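Extended Data, record BioF2-like acetyltransferase domain-containing protein
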Amino acid sequence: MRLSRTLHWLRGPWFLWFYSFAFNLADVVMFYVLSSSDHDKYPYPVISLTLNVVVLIMLVYDRLHARFIDAKPGEEPTPRQAKIGKYTKMIRKPYLLFKTIIWLFICAMCISRVILITYRPSTDEFPSRGDQNAFIVVTVFAAICDCGLLTIWWQASIRTTHGLLAFASAIHGLLGVGIVQININLIKNQEHLSRIHNLYVFDGAFILAQAFFGLTVTMVISDKNRLNSVIGKLIFLYDAMLLVVTALTVACLITVFPTLHYHQDMPVSNPILFGISIGVAIVCYVCSRVFRIRFPSTDLEVMEYDLSTLTETQRQGWAKVIDLNHKLNAGVSGDAVISLMNCYCQAELPGMTCKVLRVVKKSSLEREYTPRDLEKANDISKAWDALDHEGLLFQKDGKEDPQSWSDTTTVLEEYKPLSKTKLKRMAKKQKSEQLMESIEELQLKMEKFYNELTNTEALIMITIVEEFDLAERIPAKFGGKWLQRHFGKNSKWPLLVLKFGLLGFHWPFKRSTFYCSSTKKPVARSAAIMHALSEWNEKSGERCTVMVDPTYKHDYAETGIRFSGWYKVGLPSTHIADLRPYKNKTLQQYFKAKKYRVQDKAFNEANGEVIEIKDVTMEQCEEICYLNEMIGDARSDNDQSDTLFHPTPQFVYDQCHIDNSKNYRSLLFLKVNGKYIASCIIYRLGETMTMDINGIDYGADAKQYKAYFVLMQEVIRLALKENISFVDFGPTTENAKVDIGCSVVPLVGSLYTRMKAIGPIVKFAADRVDV
């Protein structure tokens, strides 16, 4: 901390002024002592010293004005400040105009000074060539320090990165001019080294061109367009040119050292200027990367949240805020997803841990933040303004929903804490001190919960896989089996085993980010939440090596991936049947409209039974797992990768018993000749129904009875009966699902890796995850 403050002080306005004054004074001394020419022909150092005195007076005035006249932020001015400020307002505008004129004059001085160096005669000016070159180097550094004076007043109108790139580009240009001038003069006197000096002249010219390019980039880029694709290509071209010029400068620096050793006439200023130029190029590259940085500067923090401790009233509060934001929480109801998240967090499955995360605004927490922190937090950069997106399948007829977030106050009225007036009335009526204390305790709890409801951006459930084997996801033709044998989770060196975090449910495979507040910038909010999650992962005890967030393509979240610092990966498309046009219709009418030929003839002829079970037993859960295992064996026989988890009977039992009083989850069986031939778990998520943990008994003539097709038909029949709008059948078996009337809905995933080096490997494996 002390070192940081020292460095900040050393680059402050007072030291910038001192650097300029010192080099200008050195320039004056060297010219008047060493040069034999007429001193009146070179007045620039004297003019610069005069400008230094003017700038010093202005710095002192600004310091006194800020200390004795300006009031502190958030405070009323004192009578003395008000009295003095009344008179200073009259001279403030002329002073600011004068400051601008001085700024432009210093800028013109720097340019003319460098131009004069370029055209100065090279004979009979100094006693030796070394003295002349030393004078040129000092003059260049004096001009650089004068440029430093220009940055003193830039802070009010231009951002630090813009100023730094402009300053670095100006220095780069001056260095290029110095390199060109020094080596042009040496070409005439060192003909045996003319090729080397020509190379250095070309390098200086390229450095000068690169400097002008950097100044152009500084003028073109703004907060609004810095993430624009055209600006991105411009910066890429700038970086490419910078890399080429820097490589040429490094080559020149390498060649200059042996030349210095064998030829004493080679000036030492060449390697010095080359070295400084390389350092300035690195600064320019860092600035260009900052311009394209995609991490949102937000006021969000992620913390773990325990749903099991909530009362029924509090659960309904969270359900209501999710439902109010249903435009972005498409196809689900708040109560159903709260139930499923709570179930997952309490269910037992080896190797899997689930947690609910609450994304909250830092400004709402009971911590101390400076006004600057809060101002920065509220200012989500203009570069992340919301973008229009294509209509999702879940949006009603592609139109905006009439319900707006203005209803929040009305809906959440019952969760507001009691007013002080009501508390006083209750205190008068109650004579029991113990009862009064309980009322005050209740008041504190209500106030805390109401703040949680109104200050939460999103609730997210993360499914943590303790051992995610990358080798299992790599096909055998790419060496997957060999890698699994030597570096998989069962090998001696499990190098390809990672801790994996899925921001979603594994069954059903669905995103588990549910927004709890409105925003006019959904893309910015989505990017900010993903970035906040990556920060939470670094600070928490979990530290997932990889995190994946699945979402629908063309969604706000998909647009925000490129701004969040995460990678975009491909995921298998899901298949959704839209049942909204078939409300109050029968299954036969639906099939007729879809021109689908029913597949249950053999099943009906065998007197097959369709059994939905809501009050499940452990034996039925074991049957679900047994049939699901048969599908897993079939996948292995076809050289397909395994799923993330294998369900256990206890897990299936927990799914249907934990927080399932409204029967959001149930079992569905197909039974023929007294034997189960197919099964699945039905998940009800509000407007959406889905089936997962499917099972098929391939040894009981399931293919003969077309059990899988019959299972899908019965799920659609159940959805029509319950007026469900959508049935999400998930990925895999695309032809069968399209035939039955499903739309193919593309999915994408946002991928985060703690170690950037393994990003391409994980992306390759993630593209091949079978869900």
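Summary. Residues 156-294 form one domain.
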